[in-house]
């Protein structure tokens, strides 16, 4: 595994939260990549994000008030609009003229689509900040106004790299995800083709020969295509002769020791509302199995061991580290990203 010290990728989009988590006229404080970020939604419904620190005395702005248009600090009443501009300093006398732009708060670029809020996390050094080089991922087959039918977030006690590698690991399912409603624990030979895709890689569309019982509910033998993107996004599009179901899984670093994993489902099944109440317990159990094994992994990682990867089942993990390091280098060198992934066939037992 990569000997590079752990680091967060900058100058790209991260999943912040499902849209429904941020109500109009409300604020929500979060920590992302170790930074305090204050999310809000104006009375008109527009989402925004600011650094959660007042530039006056460093009080978190989330401790203050929000009237649907401006955030007001609880210490001295300074006000900031949704773009981070300082709009009022109440203690100033009428004849004390100041350029309030000197006291603006850092604002983050935010996009909202398909029921999710995404935030662009630039370099902390403005001189190194770069504009987005690629768009946020789109859920195939669904309109921008689409909302996930199901969404669930679980916090993992690990650095983002270990959550991402676990997400793309093709060989752990028979041992970590042992459940009657999932695939059988019997090992099968897996042979899949992979191709490079923008800032990631794609497992080519293929038929699921050993599908679990749940797949029968969506109309027969399914085919699936799986795409991974930096910094830690995975879409799995499953189609049958009748329906389409897409899973979006996002991995968002909170700190060096905590990571949020959000699992969402989009479907075009007219009667999907009947099974919706069953999905959350199943997702919770599924993600919980991954979280539990990652928590156990942290015990061994405290000894800083050398992690030895094998071919072919660990090749996606190798690609992740190569993609991450190449993106960081391309940003530092201000050049175009060159993918290290080559089209190839991988074989493993799972």
TrEMBL record:
The UniProt record lists the keyword Cell membrane: no
Chain ranges of the Rieske domain: 14-119
SUPFAM superfamilies cross-referenced by the UniProt entry: Bet v1-like, ISP domain
InterPro entries: Cholesterol_7-desaturase, Rieske_2Fe-2S, Rieske_2Fe-2S_sf
Keyword set includes Methyltransferase: no
Any single Pfam family the record assigns to this protein: Rieske
Origin superkingdom: Bacteria
UniProt keyword list: 2Fe-2S, Iron, Iron-sulfur, Metal-binding
UniProt protein name: Rieske 2Fe-2S domain-containing protein
Organism (species): Almyronema epifaneia S1
């Amino acid at each position: 595994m990569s000997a590079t010290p752990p680091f967060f990728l900058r100058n790209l989009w991260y999943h912040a939260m499902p849209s429904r988590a941020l109500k109009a006229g409300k604020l929500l404080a979060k920590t992302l990549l170790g930074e305090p970020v204050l999310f809000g939604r104006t009375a008109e419904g527009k989402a925004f994000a600011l650094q959660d620190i007042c530039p006056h005395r460093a009080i978190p702005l989330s401790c203050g008030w929000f009237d649907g248009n401006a955030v007001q600090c609880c210490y001295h009443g300074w006000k900031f609009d949704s773009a981070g501009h300082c709009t009022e300093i109440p203690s100033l006398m009428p004849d004390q003229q100041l350029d309030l732009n000197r006291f603006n708060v850092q604002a983050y670029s935010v996009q909202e689509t398909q029921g999710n809020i995404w935030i662009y996390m630039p370099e902390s050094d403005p001189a190194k900040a770069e504009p987005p080089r690629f768009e946020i991922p789109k859920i195939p087959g669904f309109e921008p106004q689409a909302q996930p039918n199901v969404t669930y977030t679980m916090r993992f006690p690990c650095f983002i790299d270990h959550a991402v590698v676990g997400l793309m690991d093709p060989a752990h399912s028979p041992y970590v995800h042992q459940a009657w409603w999932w695939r059988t624990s019997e090992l099968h030979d897996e042979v899949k083709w992979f191709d490079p895709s923008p800032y990631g890689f794609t497992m080519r569309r293929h038929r699921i020969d050993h599908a679990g019982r749940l797949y029968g509910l969506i109309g027969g033998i399914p085919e699936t295509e799986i795409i991974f993107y930096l910094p830690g996004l995975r879409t799995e599009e499953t189609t049958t002769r009748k329906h389409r179901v897409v899973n979006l899984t996002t991995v968002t670093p909170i700190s060096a020791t905590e990571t949020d994993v959000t699992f969402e489902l989009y479907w075009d099944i007219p009667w999907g509302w009947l099974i919706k109440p069953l999905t959350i317990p199943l997702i919770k159990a599924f993600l919980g199995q991954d979280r539990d094994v990652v928590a156990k992994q942290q015990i061994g990682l405290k000894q800083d061991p050398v992690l030895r990867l094998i071919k072919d089942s660990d090749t996606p993990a190798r690609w992740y580290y190569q993609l991450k390091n190449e993106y960081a280098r391309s940003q530092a060198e201000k050049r175009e990203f060159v993918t290290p992934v080559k089209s190839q066939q991988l074989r493993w037992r799972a």
